[in-house]
Amino acid sequence: xxxxxxxxxxxxxxxxxxxxxxxxxxxxxxxxxxxxxxxxxxxxxxxxxxxxxxxxxxxxxxxxxxxxxxxxxxxxxxxxxxxxxxxxxxxxxxxxxxxxxxxxxxxxxxxxxxxxxxxxxxxxxxxxxxxxxxxxxxxxxxxxxxxxxxxxxxxxxxxxxxxxxxxxxxxxxxxxxxxxxxxxxxxxxxxxxxxxxxxxxxxxxxxxxxxxxxxxxxxxxxxxxxxxxxxxxxxxxxxxxxxxxxxxxxxxxxxxxxxxxxxxxxxxxxxxxxxxxxxxxxxxxxxxxxxxxxxxxxxxxxxxxxxxxxxxxxxxxxxxxxxxxxxxxxxxxxxxxxxxxxxxxxxxxxxxxxxxxxx
Length: 359
Hints:
The model is unreliable at 1-9 (pLDDT under 50). Strands 10-12-7-13-11-14 form a six-stranded mixed sheet. It has a four-stranded mixed sheet with strand order 3-6-4-5, with helices on one face. It has two domains: 18-174, CATH 3.30.1330.10; 178-354, Alpha-Beta Complex (Phosphoribosyl-aminoimidazole Synthetase, Chain A, domain 2), CATH 3.90.650. The chain has helices at residues 20-35, 76-83, 89-101, 122-139, 200-210, 226-230, 238-247, 260-266, 286-295, 299-305, 321-330; strands spanning 42-43, 52-53, 64-72, 107-117, 142-150, 160-171, 186-191, 218-219, 224-225, 252-255, 273-278, 310-316, 335-343, 351-354. The chain is an alpha+beta fold.
């Protein structure tokens, strides 16, 4: 069996491609960003074996339920790698994790991350963590720790991937979901910032392989380069959703991620009810039209893969619509009534899109 040998003749971790000193340097660079996410319940600092969160803060709850989620950002990381931009992908990671947690009405508490690289470039790793920390601030949670792993031979020197896990808390009798939804409820859509972090395998295949476009190509209908559009961070709705729970009688949320709008909305609709969403209430952004035309992708396939301009949906009683829209408007969130809840017919599914998109 062959063995990697250092200049002195003996094998070492460094000669196998793992640079511990670079890892230590990355930790030092990221500390200032992690500190910005600190909540009063966090104990200790970065560098321990585990992140600590003071659970006595949950004593104010009668029956606290912990909500947990984990996710990554998929092949969007390859766009970041090609563009050499590393400080936005963390926003995507936080959004994918914490916006899943807030769907049940839970307040995001803390998050940990996992960054896997082919070679540790301290400044790059710190930039990724900077983005994660900024995202945690936007979600109202603490970044209590993480792991940076160097995998030479498995990943190329510039390759990387990110994943994260988060925890939130919700009072038992404030838990949101299908059992709260009633006939006549309104479906409120919240606008996305673009593609968010789903469907990039399709998007990359279409714009690069089929259309032959490049990341630095200026696209008139987008008003910027293709790369800038594809790297637009995922919008984080956590605090906006929590604001809605304080000002209105929200029955449920749906985070529109992989699988598209109808499939994700159906996940929170009870078996005897049906959600109808009217496409004519909004016009998807230019990137969705570009992907559809460049790849000759049928509308149903687009809708099964991409968010089509809607990143989060709230289901509220009809008499709470005005208050909900006002709350979201005050917070700078584009929102509109997109549909309603009705009884489910014999051939109906949990949710469907009807009509044609506005121009």
